[in-house]
Amino acid sequence: MNRPANPPMPINFHANVRRVVANPVLRASFRGAMDFLTAKRATQFPDANAFETLRAQGEQIRQYALSRLPDLLEQLETNLTRNGIQVHWAQTPDEACRLIIDIASRAGGGLVVKGKSMVSEEIELNHALEAAGISALESDMGEYIVQLAGEKPSHIIMPAIHKTKEEIARLFADKVPGVEYTNSVDELIQIGRRVLRDKFRDTRVGLSGVNVAVAETGTLCLVENEGNGRMCTTVPDVHIAITGIEKVVEKLEHVPPLMTLLTRSATGQAITTYFNWISSPRRDGEMDGPKEVHLVLLDNGRSTAYADERLRATLQCIRCGACMNHCPVYARVGGHAYGTTYPGPIGKIVSPHMLGLEATRDLVTASSLCGACGEVCPVKIPIPDLLLQLRQQSQGHSKAPQLPGAGSGHKTLQSIAYRLFAGLYSRPALYRIFGLLATRLRAFSPNQQGAWTRSRVPLRPAGHSLHERMKSRNGAKVK
Predict the structure, then answer these.
(1) Is 97 among the domain residues?
(2) 167: exposed, middle or buried (C-beta count within 10 Å: 0-12, 13-18, 19+)?
(3) Do 341 and 425 sit in the same domain of this protein?
């Protein structure tokens, strides 16, 4: 695949990390939140064998759907159209935004009230709507908070997890007319509810995401806890749903196992408060529901991942966020440091397909490869293995089909250093000479050793090598 004419600028991950690590309040907040979420998840999967059985089932369902993805998408379109839902295809974020703006404009909607949708964040929909003279209001509480703050979500399930209740209280007092400062969580929730309830009645257009689309019935499934998603999809005259092309499954019977894995992995709940099934607009004689339902199916790099059988497992993701909650890197730096819509381990393997490797070259190396993300993934995505494959492409060492920006992470000096390392360790005589020089000249080791010495003492060779010490065990002492 050819590189885009104007690839995104590289994400300044290292600078972002330094800024976050210097904020002890933010770090403590994230650490506490991640510990809470991992503990809640653990209570939902007390039996390791039962969990592994369910994971295997989820993996099989997702892999089966992906193996038939083109056919299932055609079947989905046919059955949605039969049900009265209008289907639109978008190759790029710009195309998706134009489609949604056109639908909203024809509906006479000067305001779009949105349920939670990470795909709408992915395409920067709010900015596009604003540029077209259409207001967008987030109705999910977490999304509403970050919208008021002029920020982006820092977690795919809990967008405002980086905010303390005191920060939210101050934000509401500053941004919401007629609201006084209160750090009572219940009162803050009621403030948001009062603001949003009026907007649901006033708007003509509601927008939502989709958790799963069922091909055999033409059904859109949406899970949530606040009821705002149900309001967005039933009160306005026009409902626009947007999702990635990978979210389709073949049968209704495939949904319950995936939802069991999703809700328990995401929030530690056996099931969410609301489970919405949307199969058509309002029919004759029905008292509520939208008069029009539209589905926008977005590609945005997903077909690139699909085309590479080694990277196709990326598309198995059900967006639960468990990999983030268990990732030692994410727990330390938070979501905003990644500079992408999808942060954490899943973001490191998804974002290169959307933005190219040139923009995301630092993300694929921002992992200790500890494997925690792969162990907790409810659909068994081999995230560490995929990261290694993306690192190879970033360095230009992979012979597989290349992503845009492949080779952009290659550094000549680093490459020379690794060649020297390989040469020394593959030739015993050279290795012994190097070891002798390194130990005897240890006093000349540099004090500044790049990123290592930003937070660590300089590395210095020992006075004598291990081989020398082993030889001296039964002889004279080595000083």
Answers:
(1) yes
(2) middle
(3) no
Domain tally, the chain? 3
Domain boundary among 366, 385, 410: 410
Instruction: Give pLDDT tens digits along the chain (479 positions).
Output: 334 445 566 688 988 998 888 888 888 888 888 999 999 999 999 999 999 999 999 999 999 999 999 999 999 999 999 999 999 999 999 999 999 999 999 998 799 999 999 999 999 999 999 999 999 999 999 999 999 999 999 999 999 999 988 999 999 999 988 888 988 888 988 888 888 887 888 889 999 999 999 999 999 999 999 888 899 999 999 999 999 999 999 999 999 999 999 999 999 999 899 999 999 999 988 888 999 999 999 999 999 999 999 999 999 999 999 999 999 999 999 999 999 999 999 999 999 999 999 999 999 999 999 999 999 999 999 999 999 999 999 988 777 667 888 888 888 888 888 899 899 889 999 998 988 899 999 999 999 988 788 878 999 999 888 888 888 876 655 55
Tell me the residue range of the domain where 435 lies: 416-471
CA distance 354 to 264: 28
Q: Whole-angstrom Cα distance, residue 332 to residue 27?
A: 6
CB 1 within 8 A of CB 356: no
Instruction: Kindly tell me the burial class for residue 89, based on how many C-beta atoms sit within 10 Å of its own C-beta (0-12, 13-18, 19 or more).
Output: middle
Q: In what order do the strands lie in the sheet with 212-214?
A: 248-249, 212-214, 219-224, 274-278
Collect all residues with Cβ–Cβ distance below 8 Å to 379 and sequence separation of at least 6.
55, 58, 59, 61, 62, 258, 261, 316, 317, 318
- Whether 284 is in a domain gets the answer yes
* One domain for residues 199 and 274: yes
